[in-house]
Amino acid sequence: MPSYDEFVDVSNEDSPVRGFLHRPAVPGKDCLILTHGAGANSQTLLLRTLAEAFCATGLTVLRCDLPFRQSRPHGPPPRGSAERDQEGLRSAVRSMRSHRFGNVFLGGHSYGGRQASMVAATQPSLVDRLLLLSYPLHPPKKPSEMRTGHFGDIRTPAFFVHGVRDGFGSIAEMESAIKLIPAQTRLTAIAGAGHELMSDRNRNVVVEQVVQPFLAF
Predict the structure, then answer these.
(1) Distance of CA 87 to the CA centre of its chain
(2) Which letter does DSSP use for residue 11 in this model?
(3) The pLDDT of residue 2
(4) I need a labelling partner for 66 at 20 to 30 A (CA). Which of 20, 43, 94, 214 fits?
C-alpha cells in the first residue's frame, strides 16, 4: 500500500519546503509535486486523493504547502507573496531533483497552479510537465481581467483540468486561452464540477479523468 510521511526541507531558509511525501510500494522513476489554492492547504480532498491515486501508479508524490500558507495558517495569500510562493515551488523541485528522479512534474490547484505555470514560464526546463487544476483564468464575473500574460512563455507541456461550472473561467474561455501556449496542451472538462473540482460525489470520476490521461500525455 502507498504510504506518506511528513516532509521538511529547510535548505532554502527563505522558502522552505513543507508537506507530505507519498512513497509508492513499488517505486517508479518519476515524481509529481502538487500544491494548493489560495484559501486552502495541502490537506484538501483534491490533493490527498490525487496524490494517493498517482502514488498507486508508481509515482512519488509531494503535496506541499506554499510559503504563504506556512506563515499564515488561514486566509488568502497577502499581497506581494506570489514571488516567494514561486520560489517555494522552485525549492520543492530542487529538493525532489536531489533524489535523482527521472521526470519531475509540477502541479497545483487554482492559485497554486497559476504559480506553477509562472515558474515554468520563467524556467522552461525546470520541470517536465504541468498539471493545472482549476486554473483561475480571471476573477469571477470579471472576464476582462485575464491572467494569461505569461502563457506565451510557457514551453512546458501543460495538462489543464477544469470544471464546467467554474466561475473563474468557462470551458470556452479556457479553450481560447490555452491556444496562447506554444507547447503541447490538453484540457479536460469535469462535468458538474465547480472551482473546487472534486467532492465526495465525483472523486472517482476526477481520478479516472486525470491520473492515467496525465501519465499518457
Answers:
(1) 15
(2) S
(3) 53
(4) 214
pLDDT in the model for residue 28: 85
Check if the beta carbon of residue 154 is closer than 8 Å to that of residue 120.
yes
List phi, psi (to 5°) of 60.
-80, 135
In the chain, the N- to C-terminal Cα span, in Å, equals: 26
For 150, the grid coordinates are 505569461
Q: How high is the pLDDT of residue 187?
A: 98
CA gap 67, 10 in Å, rounded: 11
Q: Does domain 3-216 have CATH number 3.40.50.1820?
A: yes
Alpha-helical segments (H) within the chain: 45-56, 67-71, 82-97, 111-122, 171-177, 203-216
C-alpha cell recorded at residue 184: 503541447
Domain ranges of the chain: 3-216
Which DSSP symbol is given to 205? H
If one counts every other C-beta atom within 10 angstroms of the C-beta of residue 65, the result is 23
pLDDT under 50: residue ranges of the chain: none
pLDDT of residue 20: 97
Q: What is the DSSP string of 43-104?
A: TSHHHHHHHHHHHHTT-EEEEEE-HHHHH-SSSSPPTT-HHHHHHHHHHHHHHHHTTT-S-E
Q: How far apart (Å, rounded) are the C-alpha atoms in residues 120 and 146?
A: 18
